[in-house]
């Protein structure tokens, strides 16, 4: 005789034999990213006590950081998205900004097939507001900011006939004073962020002429420019202290960090590539550090050091780095007293986004203007 039906909540590791009546709500495979081999198949079961999808509130996301055992669902309206890009490890990625009825925002990073699926969704739904349900997300923290990241279990549902979607659409409409059908459509953003306001976009000439309100101020600005050369005199990498990220010095066979005032023999190599850039107004130099340089070059610095271990020195630029010449990018840069008071260029790049081919225009017929600031040659 079959055992009586049990609810899932009644099961435990001590349960011997039982029968359950459940519905399979989700099935996905976990794949080893390196070997592309199937590790296991995941199945989510729901019984009569839990037959609904539970969305996590934006404000509760920090409680789930690093909780790999709990995947969450989110419902939100898409207000912004970035470029579908390919990272240095070959992975496809797109960043998406969602908002809720309280105008809270959160970034969702979609990877691989989920990134491609969402990109296709944007094309198909380009003329309408987009309210999505995204399931199977992990909560992560990057640079002290909480964001969501897709997993093998992630599924994306857009503008579906689902009560939470209808409720959110009506709530946002009421909060903004818009009709539900006139809510804003998603917009493309060079740099996807949930917190920062839109940065002022300047030409290079305007950047060179920028002054600071005081010597301690630091301004963030963006500009579009084309990389036209790489300065060779400063090399293309440095040995970095793992604690403060400053350059370490070789002292009698050991490595020492002056900033930390201690030995740093556990240093790590990091990119530091100084590029000359120009637009139709002027030219200047930007400094690309590790993450931004690797984003353009497509290869980690450790890989290049292994391949070029017998090169004459760090001042010899590997050919693969020279391949970034000609790329047009949107740069998010820092302007500080080093640039405005001491008269140096080499503006530090916080973030960059390579411009799609369709946005690149032919150079203007007149040559860029010259700068009075100091530029290193190479």
Strand content: 35-45%
Distance between the ends: 85 Å
Give the topology string: H per helix, E per strand: EEEEEEEEHEEHEHEEEEEEEHHHEHE
What is the topology, as strand order, of the major beta sheet? Answer: 5-7-8-10-9
Main pleated sheet = 5 strands, mixed, barrel
Strands, total number: 20
Shape: globular
Which residue ranges are poorly predicted, with pLDDT under 50 across at least 5 consecutive positions?
358-366
Helix content: 10-25%
What structural category do the secondary elements indicate? Answer: alpha+beta
Mean pLDDT: 81
Q: Any idea what the radius of gyration is?
A: 26 Å
Total helical segments: 7
Family: Belongs to the replication factor A protein 1 family.
Domain Replication factor A C-terminal: 222-352
Keywords: DNA-binding, Metal-binding, Zinc, Zinc-finger
Protein name: Replication factor A C-terminal domain-containing protein
């Amino acid at each position: 005789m079959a055992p009586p039906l049990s609810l899932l909540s009644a099961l435990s590791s001590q349960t011997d034999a039982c029968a359950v009546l459940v519905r399979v709500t989700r099935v996905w495979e976990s794949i080893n990213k390196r070997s592309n081999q199937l590790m296991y198949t995941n199945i989510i079961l729901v019984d009569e006590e839990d037959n609904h999808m539970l969305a996590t509130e934006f404000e509760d996301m920090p409680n789930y950081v690093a909780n790999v055992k709990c995947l969450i669902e989110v419902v939100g309206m898409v207000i912004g998205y970035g470029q579908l890009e390919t990272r240095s490890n070959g992975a496809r990625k797109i960043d998406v900004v969602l908002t809720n009825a309280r105008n809270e925002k959160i970034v969702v990073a979609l990877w691989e097939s989920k990134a491609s699926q969402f990109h296709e969704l944007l094309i198909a739904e380009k003329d309408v507001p987009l309210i999505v349900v995204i399931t199977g997300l992990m909560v992560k923290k990057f640079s002290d900011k909480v964001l969501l990241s897709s997993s093998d279990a992630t599924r994306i549902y857009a503008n579906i006939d689902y009560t939470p979607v209808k409720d959110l659409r009506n709530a946002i409409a009421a909060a903004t004073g818009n009709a539900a059908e006139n809510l804003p459509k998603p917009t493309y953003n060079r740099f996807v962020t949930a917190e920062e306001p839109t940065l002022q976009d300047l030409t290079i000439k305007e950047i060179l002429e920028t002054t600071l309100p005081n010597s301690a101020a630091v301004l963030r600005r963006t500009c579009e420019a084309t990389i036209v050369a790489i300065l060779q005199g400063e090399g293309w990498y440095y040995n970095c202290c793992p604690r403060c990220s400053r350059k370490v010095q070789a002292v009698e066979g050991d490595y020492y960090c002056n900033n930390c005032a201690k030995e740093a023999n556990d240093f790590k190599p990091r990119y530091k590539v100084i590029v000359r850039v120009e637009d139709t107004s002027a030219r200047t130099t930007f400094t690309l550090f590790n993450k931004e340089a690797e984003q353009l070059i497509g290869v980690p610095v450790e890989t290049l050091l292994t391949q070029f271990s017998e090169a004459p020195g760090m001042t010899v630029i590997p050919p693969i780095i020279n391949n970034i010449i000609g790329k047009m990018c949107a740069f998010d840069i820092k302007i500080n007293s080093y640039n405005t008071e001491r008269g140096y260029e080499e503006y530090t790049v916080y973030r960059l986004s390579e411009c799609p081919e369709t946005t690149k225009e032919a150079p203007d017929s007149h040559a860029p203007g010259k700068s009075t600031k100091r530029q290193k040659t190479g």
